[in-house]
Amino acid sequence: MKSLLQALGRQNWLRFGLRDRIIRAIFNPDKISSHEFILEEFNGNAYPGNLDNFIDWSAFFYGAYEKELLEKVALPILRADASPSLIDIGANIGHHSIYLSSQCNAVHACEPDPTSLAEFNRKIKIGTFSNILLHNVALGYENAEATLYSSSTSNKGTNSLLSTHTSVNTIEHRVKVLNADAFVSSLNLSSITLIKLDVEGYELNVLKGLTKTLSKFRPAIIVEISHTTRLQLVNTGTSIRDLIPKNYRFYHLSTRNDLLFIRREFVEELFSDVIDSFVGDIVCIAEEKNIF
Fold it and tell me: How crowded is residue 225: how many other Cβ atoms within 10 Å of its Cβ?
């Protein structure tokens, strides 16, 4: 049955909601027991996972978590660079870092949650990913110690440094937060192709801490704007454009449903009258880099 549902999940021409409802009705990620697996083909890598983790569950049934974002946005950005590199801020259990590592010379992955970090380390050891460097740290604007609120459900992707982000984050850890610019400087990098930023409501703090890095390297940035992040922008009277250097263009991955259950995705530019109310992944590209 798992193989049949896996085949269904990978029919990307079908609307995701239809596939998801069918699979969840039989294998609900919040109720399924531990079941380890290895995906032999994961964008050129092997990927070990467990169905009791929502991100791994998504990789098993759909081929990857946020697969369209990875294939239609992240991979084209990396392939456009002769010496591609990635900084993954909020790397969680390593899904995105591992998926994109086959396209990178180096991946620097930052993750403060001890449970996610342990699972990421397990995946690296099984897959022997020599170009992934894992950093046990949270990044922000100032050096500090903070409380990380981690999920008690199968979805560990909601872990946040903000206590108000979601009610399912009931597990607390004390973690180290470093100024993002100082951390990147310590890596002694000559270039940065892409920064992926997904820290569940803490994005503003990280972007404020990355001012020098963004101005110096002008990398592409994929930043998740959650409802929590959007509320912070509204309450502080800040636009996401204020936190990104000048002469950047902004995009998102748009999904259209055509002809009954058929769907398609394409990269679409976000203009100034939309960007300040947008919720989702915003893709920031320096104007001098012709990618989309």
Answer: 23
Q: CATH code at 274?
A: 3.40.50.150
Cα(262)–Cα(274) distance, integer angstroms: 26
Phi and psi (nearest 5°) for 17? -60, -35
Contact 228, 201 (CB under 8 A): yes
- Res 262 pLDDT > 90: no
Measured in whole angstroms, the distance separating CA 126 from the mean position of its chain's CA atoms is 22
Q: pLDDT at residue 58 above 90?
A: yes
Mean pLDDT over 208-230 rounds to: 95
Neighbours of 31 (CB within 10 A): 9
Q: Is residue 280 situated within a structural domain?
A: yes
**Tokens representing residue 50 in the block:** 């467990």
**Count of domains forming the chain:** 1
User: Which amino acid belongs to residue 151?
Assistant: S
Decide if 13 is inside a domain. no
Q: Are strands 220-225 and 194-197 parallel, antiparallel or unpaired?
A: parallel
**CB of 154 within 8 A of CB of 115?**
no
* pTM: predicted TM-score of the whole model, two decimal places: 0.92
Encoded tokens for 249: 């263009």
Selected residue with higher pLDDT from 197 and 33 = 197
Tell me if 132 is assigned to some domain.
Answer: yes
Is there a domain that residue 60 lies in? no
Answer for the pair 42, 98: CB distance below 8 angstroms, yes or no. yes
Q: What is the pLDDT of residues 105-155, one digit of tens each?
A: 999 999 999 999 999 999 998 887 889 999 999 999 999 998 888 766 666
Structural domain harbouring 75: 65-286
